[in-house]
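Z., the sequence and structure:
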Amino acid sequence: MKRFISGLAMFLLVSTCVLAQTNDSKVKEVIVVFKTHFDIGYTDWSDNVRYNYANSMIISALSTVDKSKDLPKDQQFKWTISGWPMKEILSKAKPDVKLSVEQAIKDGNFLVHALPFSMETESSDLEPLVQSMGYASKISRAAGLPLPIDAKESDVPSHSWILPTMLTNAGVKFLHIGCNPASRSPEVPLLFWWEGPDKSKLMTFYYGEYYGTSPAPPKDWAHKTWLAIIQTNDNSGAPTYEEYREAVKNVEKLNPGAKVRVGSMADFYSTIIKENPKLITVKGDMPDTWIHGYMSMPREMKSSRVLSKSTFNLEAFSTLSSIWGRKSEEPIPAFVDQSSENINLFDEHTWGLAMSHGESGYWAYGKEFEKLRAKGYYDIIEYSWKEKGNYVTGSEKLILPVVSRELKRLAAAVNVEGNRIVVYNPLPWERNDMVTVQTAAAFKKSLKNVATGEIVSIVKDKNILQFQANHIPAMGYSTFVSTGEEAVTSKSNLSFDAEKAMMENEFFKITFDKKNGTIQSLIDKKSNKEMVNANSDYKFGQYVNERFAKTQTDKYAKDYIKAGWNWAYQELGRINLDDTPYKKSSGRNAEITFSKDALSVTAIMTFKGDADLVHNYSMVFTLYENKPTVEVIWSINGKPAEAWPEAGWISFPFNIEHPQFKLGRLGAVVDPVKDFVKGSNLDYGFINTGVGVLDKNNQGFGLTSPDVPGLSLDRPGCWKYSTDFVPQKANVFFNLYNNQWSTNFTEWVEGSWTAKFYIWGINNYADGSAIVVPSEEIRNPLMVGYTEGAAGKQGATSKGVSVSEKGVLVTFFGKNRDGEGDVIRLWEQNGKTSPCKVTLPDDNKYKSVQPCNLRGEKTGEEISIKNNAFEVKIKANQPASFILI
């Protein structure tokens, strides 16, 4: 966020505030760390920021290093920088500058910490986060240095508790979080052990007043060591030599009698840990109070979630293909690395320029907004948002065509002649699901699974062919061929009654509300329970558009802003609003059509815009044969850009009294009542898998979206900041889009896109079976390749990697980025500690596995592979990585 005072000036201002506090300080040693806050954008277009880092900024930092060389070693200038910008500097700096930078790294004047940059961790996924540590690891290894044991996040107020799990399992010992000075902070101690869902504990220093810390400790600081982080403002670079010396002298002045040395965050950890500090343990997730900003780019967010899976599924598929006897014709690891980097950059916390900077238009609404936009006054700021979206577009261009080609090559390689469809399962357990192939080729009435001999029915509608693919091996494939044989099928349970507006299958019976185009009743036929709360203020499967009032945006700003009101209100409130009242709108009087085929029954609701809601949109509700889920698809056509604060939701009010909620968040399933740290976001958050809504008997309903991670419980949560909110009603709201941020996220949402949602019943709740497994199967659909012609030489079916425990994920299987060989990474998500047997494909050449941490460092004794399998004990929610030897 924009500050009207430089980082160094802020540091010196804080100095005067703490001077009176430090006379009786017990501190014997102060480690001074210098850093600048890195935004990929915000102060300028991101390309310009990247250029400046590799040119003027690093040259200025080298100058400060050179001028300090005559000082004692512990007084020489040392500059801490994140992994990714240092990677950019090394790759883009001029040759002579690059050599100087490399030498400064080896000499310890440039210090690279473990994380790539400040991220909104909640927007990411498990494997992209792991890969994001690779930039710093590679730089350290190239310089012959140990891997960094320190890490830093700045600006973003709160983070997913995946951080202590991930960093600890990567060998990192210390994390510093510096909060934006205007934003509310989680209620945590200054220094504490942060315990992750796997019970890993990470020493964490949370400073709520600014990016860095104060130059001297507060009065109640109980330790002999203090960390003074002098962090200059957004992209402002390293201090000059004169500023550097002034800052160090200021620290000495404020800590009389203490030894003051310039160093790293790791130096602070290594010193204070010798004191055996008595620290409070905080076990809890801290939902991000900024995370709603990602849903200002709903299409890109949807694609990012797909790419977070498909990118690493591609590498696993390529690795397996080599074992099966067909090496890829393309450099798959290089494509994966570039896609992973783009995903990381999308998860980086900066989006674009801010309206408050005055560099592109100003806040206007209605006709005035349309006029300014037509004249091009917003072109500069809109391009900055486009830069952010291009990271996702770039990954799509890399990954999606390669996945398509690889699947076609697999289909061509199998020893089956003629038309054939190959179905690949990217998950490490056998599964069944429906697949879709688009082809104009002629097919007979059924398909045969070559491996099992099963005959399955097909539905062919012009160029769209669908069928149920059963018994697809874990991370393996099966081949299907056209046949004239009749499929043996039981009587269909699919039906609809247009007059009564009803449809059903074996598992569910749905009755629609014709007036509102929503679900009036949804019966879970297995439990005979009604899912829908008919008395709710919201309808089930209802699209809701909110237009907020100035009273609401102002209340949010007053609740959330903790300091700097004069500038922070412009970036966290919404200026120039008039007194137009709050409005909540939904479509009505939909056109309803039903259809049925051998695999599904569908109701389509089409809504035309009117004076109350100007959007044209549709809702599609589908039940499938032999599939215990309800599919809901929302689709909007030509949404206009709207600068007025707004949000769109799909509501699901469930018929449960006194509900319990289970949220499948990043790294673990959590209880929002017990596991959220106060002061973080209790009103709105992201999920990674799914949601459970349970009654007192641990029975109820599950739901997820592969496209929409943002949701609120009980009531819609945009423009709300609550310190003690506890959801009471069994309502789940998925956030389709919003433009709440007035800072640097996209400020108006427009266009056409879709979002899917899935609902199922829960009989006996367990994290794995109720949430993780169904959600992962939805996020990782079966992959299909089609070809025709001569047969290849590869088997018609092959097994891949399997795990004995469903819900243990294989997040990576491919080339070791930290050394020789291949790596396989498991991640326990069932929330239970148990042994897990991992079975590798036939014909693999691996003899043993070497346990390692998330950065490839060996951690234990080799484990022999016997009969293509090895067994390990994995703790609940823990990652486990192995080098295959």
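Residues 1-23 have pLDDT under 50 and may be disordered. The chain is about 25% helix and 30% strand.

Let me know what you think.
H.
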